[in-house]
């Protein structure tokens, strides 16, 4: 019975988070970036990244705040989400329609992400995180934003990352079925009362959205731990697979729809680029907050996490090879990527205990 209620809570929380972030939080961030007159590349790498990765960031922080040794649940969600993005979202997008990509753009994103993973391996070298290591993560992300501000247009063309995110959100919403669409409208109505208009009341929408995202992420963490306990597997396994996949499914649906429209390059760029924020800020910021708050060093690095990190690095290399050979991600290559993720999940649960 606990397993059933945990699964229902996870599914409901993921669904409510998707509606909240897509329909309200990202819109309020878009309005804030417009009021601040931020360049589109910088806004895309900061505010829009916060919007699309808010659940993972909240889960990482809440897992650290929860009494007991649950920090790896947050890390597992981010590492697992990164694997899902690289293998499933890009693979499913290619299965929907082969995607042509710009060599300079994908090279920039893969280099940035590979360096981010290098930092993660460096931080895990002694199985604990200290203050200076968390600061290095955030400093590297600040440098990444600086690179985008000065050279992104030269490297990536005229694609507006804010418009790209919003287009993916809208196309995902448009594809909902009749019954699901009615439920979404009902939930949106409740959110509208609580949050208000995310454009005209963007400050209120921003603050209330953060509170609601935190509450739903807390439910996700608790449900994930309860599910793992009932199933008899380490919580980090559930975080690497179910929580990670759950928070990424809405992005996958939007990416598939966009790919079918011939914009597979957008889906791939978003999947790889958002991982940079997840690793550097999604982990660096919660670590920094907890250490400054008096937690001291933070223990990290279960064997499951370290193994998944190596697999993640290998998947990034494989994806890059696929992309640069013909500058197109074919259906066959997409099938290989999705198949690799299925094998990974099966292997993780098969090797438990």
Residue windows where pLDDT falls under 50 for at least 5 positions: none
In order across it, which strands form the biggest sheet?
A: 1-4
Strand elements, count: 4
CATH H level of the domain at 60-176 and 221-350: which superfamily?
Answer: NCX, central ion-binding region
CATH level-3 fold name of the domain at 60-176 and 221-350: A middle domain of Talin 1
β-sheet strand percentage: under 5%
Helix content: over 70%
Shape: globular
Radius of gyration: 19 Å
CATH architecture call of the domain at 60-176 and 221-350: Up-down Bundle
Instruction: Look at the helices and sheets and give the structural class.
Output: mainly alpha
User: SSE order, as H and E?
Assistant: HHHHEHEHHHHHHEHEH
CATH class of the domain at 60-176 and 221-350: Mainly Alpha
How many helices?
Answer: 13
Give the biggest sheet: 2 strands, antiparallel
Average pLDDT value?
A: 84
Terminal residue distance: 23 Å
């Amino acid at each position: 019975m606990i397993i059933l209620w945990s699964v229902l809570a996870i599914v409901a929380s993921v669904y409510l988070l998707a509606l909240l972030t897509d329909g309200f939080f990202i819109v309020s961030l878009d309005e804030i970036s417009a009021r601040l007159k931020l360049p589109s590349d910088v806004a895309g790498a900061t505010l829009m990244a916060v919007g699309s990765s808010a659940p993972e960031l909240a889960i990482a922080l809440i897992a650290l705040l929860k009494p007991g040794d649950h920090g790896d649940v947050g890390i597992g969600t981010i590492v697992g989400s990164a694997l899902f993005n690289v293998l499933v979202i890009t693979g499913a997008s290619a299965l929907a329609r082969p995607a042509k990509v710009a060599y300079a753009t994908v090279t920039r994103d893969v280099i940035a992400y590979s360096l981010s993973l290098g930092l993660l391996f460096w931080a895990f070298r002694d199985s604990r995180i200290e203050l200076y290591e968390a600061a290095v993560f955030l400093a590297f992300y600040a440098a990444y934003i600086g690179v985008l501000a000065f050279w992104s247009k030269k490297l990536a063309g005229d694609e507006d990352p804010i418009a790209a995110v919003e287009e993916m959100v809208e196309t995902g919403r448009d594809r909902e079925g009749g019954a699901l669409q009615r439920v979404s409208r009902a939930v949106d109505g409740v959110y509208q009362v609580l949050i208000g208009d995310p454009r005209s009341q963007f400050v209120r929408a921003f603050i209330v959205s953060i509170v609601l995202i935190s509450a739903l992420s807390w439910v996700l963490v608790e449900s994930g731990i309860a599910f793992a306990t009932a199933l008899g597997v380490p919580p980090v396994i559930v975080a690497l697979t179910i929580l990670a996949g759950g928070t990424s499914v809405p992005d996958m649906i939007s990416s598939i729809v966009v790919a079918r429209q011939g914009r597979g390059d957008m889906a791939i760029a978003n999947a790889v680029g958002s991982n940079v924020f997840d690793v550097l800020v999604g982990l660096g910021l919660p670590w920094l907050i907890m250490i400054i708050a008096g937690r001291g060093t933070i223990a990290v690095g279960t064997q499951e996490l370290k193994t998944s990190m190596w697999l993640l690095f290998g998947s990034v290399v494989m994806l890059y090879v696929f992309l640069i050979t013909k500058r197109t991600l074919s259906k066959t290559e997409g099938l290989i990527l999705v198949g690799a993720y299925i094998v990974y999940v099966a292997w993780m649960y098969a090797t438990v205990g």
